[in-house]
Amino acid sequence: LKHIPTLADADVNLTAARREFATSPFYASNLVSADLRTTAILINLKPQARYDELLRLRDEAKGALEQAEHEGNRSKAQISEIKNALKLSEQNFKSYRDKLREKDHRDIMALRALIAEFQNKHGGDRLFLGGINMIADDMVGYVRSDLATYGLGALVLLLACFWLFFRQIKFIVLPLIICAYSVVLAAGLFGFLGFEITVISSNFIALQLIITVSVCIHLIVAYREFSARFHAFSQRQLVYAVLRERARPCFFAIFTTIVGFMSLIFCDIKPVISLGIMMSVGIFISLLVAFGVFGAIMSLQTRTHNNRSFERSFKFTLWCAETALRSRRAVYGMCAAAVIFGLYGISQLRVENSFIGYFKESTDIHAGMKVIDTNLGGTIPLDIIVKFKGAGGADPASESENSASDSANSKSGENSNP
Questions:
Q1: Angle (CA) 206 197 101, round 5°
Q2: Are residues 184 and 123 in the same domain?
Q3: Which domain, by its residues, includes 384?
Q4: Residue 377 — left, alpha, or beta (φ > 0 → left; ψ -120 to 50 → alpha)?
Q5: Does a structural domain hold residue 227?
Q6: Residues 302, 373 share a domain
Q7: CA neighbours within 13 Å on the CB side: how many for 417?
Q8: Residue 235 CA to chain centroid, in angstroms?
């Protein structure tokens, strides 16, 4: 075709075109909004043939390994060769994917610069950026931000809590060393094993820090108690007694926590499975590091007087103990009320399946998807599935079923909202 008519042509009937946009099921609430004040602009990115090829090779290597393990008739050398091929294909795929992510990030930043420039010139009009590439790029940024935010926030809270509890520099620095060493060791191990951090598993640092701190507090409190009771013990005897006394309760506390996190591996959501594995391994590392580093460092220290100002001034735990002994009926009543309240709360829980609700209203992901959901027909795709009886042709019964299904799908696609 030499010339395709456009709205910019002088001989185009704009009134008819406006009516077509407002009434046609192909345009209304899809390409343009019902009030004709919002429209969609599609940017087609260049296909990445190399990416598709590397993805295909990786999937084929995975399929070959699964088939070989299922058949069970391959030698160890053949299985090892297939595993090496899979490892190489995964490395090539991830390397190229990371390069594409960097390119996508640069493209998205350039688009955002253009959008900002446009909106500065046309204050009354707004442009919203959406699409899978933008969502993926922003989510990677959110993960990195969450790792830094949670880590820094946990560090500040740790400093405040340890100073409030112990009022001694060594009992502030020592837990920080243990926490830092545990997190670095766990993160390095996960990186070496090829684990990739997602929005869900990005919380593992904060969770590991919390559990590591609990072990540190157990050890420090035991040390302070033993130091006040056994004046004749040397420093090494005191540390040995603390580690021996707290080994069993700390082990069972960590073990039960590991069992809880390991239950996540039975989930069907891969990021949740990864979180379960990472937390189980991470808190086991924390247990070993806490006992090892605490024992090694404290054995080299000299015995000093413990600052017990917090214990003398903080009476809440003592009040709880006295209340439990004096007012058993009140305690039973509060427990029963808490159980009833909890059961009522459980009955009010609802499963949320709205992707847009995972993000703050200030994010570009939320803003872009809200415009699509509100004005442009939603984000649920229209799938038309045609089933054939065989090579000879389609089953008439299936054709009638597919026709009804296509009609229903068309209606749901036009009015879809997540």
A1: 135
A2: no
A3: 355-414
A4: left
A5: yes
A6: no
A7: 9
A8: 44
Structure tokens at 248: 């069993």
CB–CB of 293/178 below 8 Å?
yes
Q: What are phi and psi of 390, to 5 degrees?
A: 180, -165
Number of domains the chain is built from = 4
72: three-class secondary structure by DSSP: coil
Q: Are 84 and 164 within one domain?
A: no
Domain assignment of residue 13, yes or no: no
Query: From CA 97, how far away is CA 111, in angstroms rounded?
Result: 21
pLDDT by position in tens, the chain (length 418): 577 778 788 888 888 888 888 888 777 777 888 788 888 888 887 888 888 888 888 888 888 888 888 877 777 888 888 888 888 888 888 888 888 888 888 888 888 888 888 888 877 778 888 777 888 888 888 877 877 777 777 778 888 888 888 888 888 889 889 988 998 999 899 888 888 777 777 778 888 888 998 899 999 989 988 888 888 888 889 999 999 999 999 999 999 999 988 888 888 778 888 888 889 999 999 999 999 999 999 988 887 777 666 666 667 777 888 888 888 888 889 999 999 999 999 888 876 666 677 777 788 888 888 887 777 777 665 566 777 776 544 444 444 444 433 333 333 333 333 3
- Read off the tokens for 279: 């937390």
DSSP letter at 300?
A: T
Q: What is the pTM of this model?
A: 0.65
Residue type at 234? S
Instruction: Provide the token pair at 216.
Output: 């540190």
